[in-house]
Design goal:
This protein is mostly helical. The protein has 2 domains: 1-33; 43-116. The chain contains 5 helices and no strands.
Length: 116
């Protein structure tokens, strides 16, 4: 078998494997999302609001201020969400709900970097 034939065969195999793996990834992503939603649904309202706020901060924190208008929009959103106060708000909620497994699990979403 020539080198070119081997490369074509290898490319075909890799393509098939990637194609087979794609549905499994999509299914897992959906179940992970369902678990996340269940954790949030079990949490108190102020914890859910905090996680939503943290998501907003994560979103705006990743935006590019490519011009003055965009920078002003981002700054307004970050200021409105009080993103600079997230850590203190999380500490307060963790203290308030120290005995609540549901609240702590929801707050762990942020700590684990899982803020979709």
């Amino acid at each position: 078998m020539s080198c070119r034939s081997r490369l074509r065969s290898l490319s075909l195999i890799v393509g098939l494997l990637l194609g087979l793996a794609a549905p499994a990834v999509a299914i897992d992503d959906g179940s992970a999302r369902e678990r996340l939603d269940a954790v949030l649904a079990a949490a108190p309202a102020d914890v859910r609001a905090f996680v939503s706020r943290a998501r907003g901060c994560a979103h705006w924190g990743g935006e590019e201020p490519y011009d003055k208008e965009r920078a002003a929009t981002i700054n307004k959103a970050v200021t409105g969400l009080k993103c600079d106060q997230l850590d203190a708000a999380e500490v307060a909620l963790r203290r308030k709900y120290a005995g609540s497994r549901a609240a702590q699990q929801a707050l762990d979403i942020r700590d684990g970097g899982v803020v979709p």
